[in-house]
Amino acid sequence: MSEIKILFTREQIAKRVAEMGEQITQDFSGQTIIFVGILKGACIFLSDLARSVQLDATFDFISCSSYGKGARSIGEVKLIKDLDQSVQDKNVILVEDILDTGLTLSYLKKLLTAHQPRSMKVAALLDKPSRRVQPVKADYTGFEIPDHFVIGYGMDYAERYRNLPSIGVLPPELF
Ligand code: IMP
Ligand code: MG
């Protein structure tokens, strides 16, 4: 049985997330922001990113299910948990673990824009541009990767592996 192949170590992730945090700190200097994490995959990334941002910040979380991955109705995204607070007039940073087809983010961006935030940016730790179906881009990207199914650092396969501190590629026999 082959092992999980490590793509990014804990140290590599920490370094990149710290850089993203510094960039956000600069870009929003003197302002307050709200991190909106997309459950559950983004929770570990959000907790590290938020701690590398030196601004007055609050958190909120949103959850949705996507039916775009398997053979089923492509493109359908459903909201499971809405925001707790209004984002009207706020600087929103939508935090996502991985940007894949873009269906989830384009749906959520539309949804949040309707609440008239002051600004809205997307921070995605990983980006698989070759998989894109909707033309959505992240404003802050950690790493671009090829079309691999990755796990760890919040990301799962069938709800497992979220607690791995590094990011790896799942070998086919573990699928
Ligand atoms: P999208 O709507 O296709 O962009 O899907 C984004 C969501 O799919 C992410 O938030 C992840 O939850 C999940 N996802 C996409 N690719 C992967 C992967 O390689 N590993 C784990 N989850 C993934
Ligand atoms: Mg997700």
Describe the structure.
Helix 1 (10-27) packs across helix 2 (43-51). The protein has a single domain (5-174), classed as Rossmann fold, CATH 3.40.50.2020. It has a 6-stranded mixed β-sheet, sandwiched between helices. The chain has a 3-stranded antiparallel β-sheet with strand order 1-9-8. It has 175 residues and is α/β, with parallel strands linked by helices. The chain is built from 3 helices and 9 strands; from the N terminus they run βαβαβββαββββ. It starts with a strand and ends in a 6-residue tail after the last strand. The mean pLDDT is 93. The structure holds inosinic acid and magnesium ion. Magnesium ion (MG) binds at residues 38, 41, 97. Magnesium ion (MG) binds next to loops.
List its traits.
binds inosinic acid; six-stranded mixed sheet; Rossmann fold; 9 strands; alpha/beta; binds magnesium ion; 175 residues; three-stranded antiparallel sheet; 3 helices
Percent helix among the residues? Answer: 10-25%
The third-level CATH topology is: Rossmann fold
What's the CATH C level? Answer: Alpha Beta
Number of strands: 9
Widest sheet: strand order? 4-3-2-5-6-7
Biggest pleated-sheet summary: 6 strands, mixed
Any guess at the CATH architecture?
Answer: 3-Layer(aba) Sandwich
Q: List the ions, cofactors and other small molecules found in this model.
A: inosinic acid, magnesium ion
So what's the overall shape?
Answer: globular
